[in-house]
């Protein structure tokens, strides 16, 4: 259960090796002991994530999850809930991909679309079903500012995030009467494994800073959060620029 | 008749969804218990617990307010036999014309008898009369097997039900031992104290035992020399000859109006340090410095908040939590540190009560134990979770505990620290409900079942 001041007892991380996801779990675990379910592909990285959370005092179980295997998602989510209620579910898997390859290579483009959009939708539907059954809970979906307005340099990824953002924004409304909070998180450039080697964008941030914003949003039942917060205003301006201007910006 | 509803406690925090049934008969209750699904069932009264004991996410909640008949009140013995869903307000209105008084009244009359037993509620007269469970000669409990069992204080399941937060079964009927009174008025003495020391002095100089009822409001917004300045009000039920002549004609008149219901329009930040400080200043200044023998009705002396319906709405959508703890005698220093901590924190509390408890009872999860109990309430705000965890440390370090009827945010481990007899309770409960039919959000949160 999430208590009166927003402490959860259990967290499910879909995308069990996500840097931001793990930082969110650690941030919650710094206040209370947590039961954590890591859903991801079995790998040394997943083992390392498990060890890292156990060091932080969490009781960790893992569930095998492959975002590409869409027909397994309902079963994966069922297994993730088998050990008890899930108070907070983090949808934190995704691929950045290589934009230049992706828009010219069908397989690469479809893979991005499948993982970032289709799988996110499939997992979202399954999570919503379980949360409705248990009568409480919070879902946190990691979107991206890249989905708010697609840029030439990153539009394949941006388009998948635009789709998943729209889905979870709608899910927020659908689940609100059910007492379940859905929070859509829109980080900017975050220094993670995903962005390793890329030149950082303005307002670049860290997984820990994003995690702090997410934890605060879950505690106060906020439904949309930008990380860092000033990106909200920045993106609002960028969204409204004429295309002729937007395409000339160095973003 | 059932519907799926979002339920919250009086603090308006932590909403969850459950199927709500409204039993009209004991048979409806046994049917519902038999049909409880894997997420179990719990009874709910008038929803005055601040946290989540009367919620059951994804399961069934029995709204007991439809099972609310006063079956009999014996004017000779003072024994009232009532359904579990009868409110103390109803019981009081029925009993007063017979010259009978409800022995234990919490700060509101809007609680059910079943809830009063489940939380083992106490009032300003704890030091003289104990808690609610002390005045129940028997109760009828629908247990997990669907049976209706009549239990007396000699049964261990009775003791596990008193203070058991509804997790042993559903109280469908109970007997309450009322006591005799000549009037519905109190003779009240008021003392305004400069600080905490003066207050503690008055409460420990032996004078407290001369009064049937005693509690103090204290200020947590003033610091320095005025730290913990307080208004102590103590009184006893008035006898006929203590009443002024104009009240003697109708001494049992139940004078308890509801002035207004608050609409749900208040923003979350309205109750803040500035407004609560102003409120505290006013509350302190309006009290007489020293007054003896004032005649007051129950509302003025006791249940001021019952003047206002839905007063919890003042805290806005984010809600609030009430933090009530008890510490044993000798832990006065801890109490002082907690008041200082609140006064110097960003969190403010307006309604603060200090009371001296008398002896506890035999129920393993009953809250009151000899010592002090303190109640403060905080609007939900950023950082409150850590602040309350720090208060928990101080309270439990001093051998104290938290009151489950108010509790909404502690951890399972901390709760257990305060209740050394928890395992004993758990064994009795598990014996009566081996498959875990009765459960609640609080039970899941504090790992009670």
Report what the structure shows.
- The complex is a heterodimer of chains A (251) and B (449).
- Chain A has a single domain, classed as NAD(P)-binding Rossmann-like Domain (Rossmann fold).
- In chain A, helix 1 (19-29) crosses helix 7 (207-219).
- The model of chain A has no long low-confidence stretch (mean pLDDT 96).
- Chain A has 251 residues and is an alpha/beta fold.
- A 7-stranded parallel beta sheet of chain A has the order 3-2-1-4-5-6-7, sandwiched between helices.
- Chain A has helices at residues 19-29, 44-55, 73-82, 99-102, 106-134, 155-175, 207-219, 231-240, 243-246; strands at 10-14, 35-40, 59-64, 88-91, 138-142, 181-187, 224-227.
- Chain A is globular and about 50 Å long.
- In chain A, 45% of the residues lie in helices and 15% in strands.
- Chain A is built from 9 helices and 7 strands; from the N terminus they run βαβαβαβααβαβαβαα.
- Chain B is an alpha+beta fold and 449 residues long.
- Chain B has a domain at 186-409: Alpha-Beta Plaits, CATH 3.30.70.
- Chain B contains 14 helices and 21 strands.
- Chain B has helices at residues 26-34, 88-95, 113-118, 126-129, 156-161, 196-204, 245-248, 273-286, 298-301, 332-343, 384-397, 412-418, 422-432, 441-445; strands spanning 2-7, 16-21, 41-44, 60-63, 70-73, 79-83, 100-101, 139-142, 148-151, 170-177, 179-180, 186-193, 213-218, 230-237, 260-261, 290-296, 308-309, 320-328, 353-357, 371-379, 401-402.
- In chain B, strands 16-12-14-13-19-20-18-21 form an 8-stranded antiparallel beta sheet. A 5-stranded antiparallel beta sheet of chain B has the order 5-6-10-8-9.
- Chain B is globular, with a radius of gyration of 21 Å.
- In chain B, 52% of the residues are buried.
- The mean pLDDT of chain B is 94.
- The chains are: A alpha/beta (251), B alpha+beta (449).
- Chains A and B meet through helix 5 of A and strand 2, helix 11 and helix 14 of B.
